[in-house]
Amino acid sequence: MIDLICMGRVSLDLFSQDVGAAFEDITGFHVFVGGTPVNIAVGAQRLGLQTAILSGTSDDGAGRLVRKFLATEGVNIAHMTLKPGATTNAFLLSIQPPDEFEPTIYQNNNADMYLSVDDVQAAPLHDARALLFTGIGIQTKANFAAALLAAEIMQATGGTVFMDLDYKTTHWRNADEYGVMTRAALRLTDIAIGTEEEVCAAAGTDAVADAARALVPLMRQALVVKRGGRGATLYTPDGNTLDAPVFPAEVLNVFGAGDAFAAGLIYARLNNMGWPAALEMAAACGAIIVTRHGCANDMPTLADVQALIGR
């Protein structure tokens, strides 16, 4: 059985080899694999879940590189559908820790944007325990329909639906459009995860607490608001809140922290851990990945997380 199906964006991450250099002074890039669904799938796989990717992929060298990496990690790629003529996203990043990171995103005719209800109907959702989709993964009409159909199927089979709010201003015409579509998707969601900015955009308000109160009733279990170095807070429909612990870390690269956090949280919940333990595991995963260079390529193992929590 597949524990978790992650659907949506796939990309190449080209991260500067010259840590500390401005973008214009970069002399070379490390080639990694990324995209929130991919990062979460690899992170959860390394922790011990059996994961799969549901997405479109380019029929070229970049697509082959991504598929080879995922297969090597043990992630099921049987439902990464080839989309002839399409391309793979590219995400370039300069790294000037602890708090200066300049991303440049190249996306044009990307394969994951062609993910459709046909792809969803062919996927083994009835045999999976959980689904993860993202905010970027609902930005087109076809993607939106595919994500909602997948969530409906998962809900009908008694599985758990996770949504990473994953809001990028470059992918939407405005925050209102993102908010309307996200709130519709949350009604088919058990657990949502997002940053303070993403939660506010989804709710259409600037106050985090107000935004959380507005969104929580839409879903069945909980909303987790990530607060960066200040930890995270869980909001439940009964009005309770719970703060995640904070693990000190020497930051190299913050990109991937939220995805590692999500992988840890999903792993814990699918292993029937209570919320305090789930938030601890999620926080530990996030603290580990910020000390490393890449995202999917550098996701922590269960042993890594247990060692940190043990300390």
General shape: globular
- Write down the secondary-structure element order: EEEHEHEEEHEHEHEHHEEEHHH
Radius of gyration: 18 Å
Proportion of helical residues: 25-40%
Into which percentage range does the β-strand content fall? 15-25%
Distance between the termini: 34 Å
- By helix and strand content, what is the structural category? alpha/beta
- Helical run tally: 10
Task: Compute the average pLDDT.
Answer: 97
Largest sheet: 9 strands, mixed
Low-confidence stretches: none
Q: How many distinct beta strands?
A: 13
Strand order of the largest sheet: 5-4-1-8-9-10-11-12-13
Question: Notable features of this structure?
Answer:
4-stranded mixed sheet; single chain; 13 strands; alpha/beta; 9-stranded mixed sheet; 10 helices; 36% helix; 24% strand; globular; 311 residues
Structural notes for this entry:
It is a single chain. The protein is 36% helix and 24% strand. It has helices at 36-47, 61-73, 117-122, 141-156, 175-186, 196-203, 208-215, 257-270, 275-289, 302-310, and strands spanning 2-7, 11-16, 29-34, 51-57, 76-82, 89-96, 100-106, 128-134, 160-164, 191-195, 222-226, 232-235, 241-243. The strands form two sheets. Strands 5-4-1-8-9-10-11-12-13 form a nine-stranded mixed β-sheet, with helices on both faces. The two termini are 34 Å apart. The mean pLDDT is 97.
